[in-house]
Write a structure and sequence with these properties.
Elements (H helix, E strand, L loop, with lengths): L1 E3 L5 E4 L5 E4 L29 H4 L3 H4 L2 E5 L46 H30 L2 E9 L14 E4 L8 H12 L6 E3 L7 H6 L6 E9 L14 H24 L4
Helix pairs in contact: 4-6
């Protein structure tokens, strides 16, 4: 069952297994009334998690629920806390209502950054509905199966000096330093990666999981959350026009499917009697 909410903030595809995949940064829309405040370059939404729905096209086969947003992270970042507290103290951070590209350059024309009341409006209009849907679907899954696994799917350019030094590992697994998922789930995902030694992997490195992973991953309450931040170089062109590369994607998709399947199997094992 697919559900588009009334104001098209998100789409929810309800599945049949105890797995919800969230893709909070794949939206590309910027409301027409907000567009004049942005720079011309910002309207190209270059920092999108491009093509993830296409890359994860195996999710219906697995029976997973899938939650995706309509609007760009430049409008509001669904993976940031509502109070806008930094996720990575001491490092460069993007905001709840971002004002800079990943390069550090301004997204808005001078003097057009969103004021506090506008940020609050966006939080209510875009952030709250997505998180209400996410929480409700996890509750539905948990009520049906007794537990739930949340996979938070992301992608990013492999080199962004403003955010991190050097080149990012290909696959970055985050479980809030082990707090958001049982260790056997993390181990199962890492083992799936180890079967592809040409792919570099980090566990709880630069990307330990954002707000979604940290907020909803509550193993003691039967909800486990894991974030995957993957380099876009694995499946697409990292420069404009950010084209999907089907040949590259076909090489990483089997591993990606194995990672998700392994996480779900390990999560199920935690509750086998």
């Amino acid at each position: 069952m697919s559900e588009m909410n009334n104001d098209q903030v998100y789409t929810l595809q309800c599945g049949s297994v105890p797995l919800l995949v969230s893709m909070p940064h794949i939206g590309t829309a910027i409301p027409a009334e907000l567009q004049p405040a942005y720079t011309a370059e910002a309207l190209k939404v270059e920092d999108t998690d491009w093509h993830l729905a296409k890359l994860y096209n195996f999710l219906p086969e697995l029976g997973a629920s899938v939650l995706t947003p309509h609007y760009s992270r430049y409008v509001i970042d669904l993976n940031r806390p509502p109070d806008d507290a930094p996720m990575y103290p001491g490092a460069s951070n993007t905001e709840l209502c971002p004002t800079r590209f990943f390069s550090g350059e301004p997204l808005y024309k001078a003097g057009c950054e969103p004021a506090p009341d506008e940020r609050a409006r966006r939080r209510e209009a875009y952030w709250q509905p997505y998180h209400a849907a996410l929480a409700a679907e996890l509750e539905r899954i948990k009520a049906q199966h007794g537990f739930a696994l949340l996979w938070d799917a992301h992608s990013i350019r492999s080199q962004i000096p403003w955010l991190f030094e050097g080149q990012l590992p290909d696959l970055n697994i985050g479980t809030a330093s082990g707090a958001s998922a049982h260790e056997t789930i993390t181990a199962a995902v890492a083992q799936a990666c180890a079967e592809s030694p040409h792919i570099t992997t980090a566990v709880n490195g630069r990307f330990k999981g954002g707000y979604i992973t940290r907020r909803y991953g509550q193993p003691s309450e039967g909800v486990h959350a894991i974030q995957l931040e993957m380099c876009q170089s694995l499946y697409m062109q990292e420069v404009a026009p950010f084209a999907y590369d089907a040949a590259l994607a076909s090489k990483i998709q089997p591993l990606l499917k194995n990672m998700v399947s392994s996480a779900l199997s390990a999560c199920r094992s935690c509750y086998e009697k």
